[in-house]
Design brief:
mainly alpha, elongated, single chain
Length: 94
């Protein structure tokens, strides 16, 4: 299974989200739009696939909100994406 590949992607997404949080609005949009194009990793365990799908959906939603306005790191959209990524990372540790 590709759970290890999915884990690498989760770490990457977490890192990019952290960088976006300290970036300008324009830079954050570019970073989030890049993450929004990610697809779910194939051949992962069901739990990993679900966690990845939820996290990528939250990232896409955040990118959509960020596209039309500034979304502070403390916003519910930002926090939802960060929590979803953390849950994705936690699946691997179980």
């Amino acid at each position: 299974m590709s759970d290890d590949q999915s884990l690498i992607k989760a770490r990457y997404c977490r890192s990019i989200l952290k960088v976006a949080a300290i970036s300008t609005e324009q830079e954050a949009r570019i970073l989030l739009n890049g993450l929004a194009t990610e697809q779910v990793t194939t051949n992962t365990s069901p739990a990993m696939a679900e966690a990845e799908r939820v996290a990528l959906t939250a990232i896409r939603d955040l990118a959509g909100y960020q596209h039309s306005r500034s979304v502070p790191q403390s916003s519910s959209e930002w926090m939802r994406a960060a929590r979803a990524i953390q849950l994705w990372l936690n699946v691997h540790d179980q």
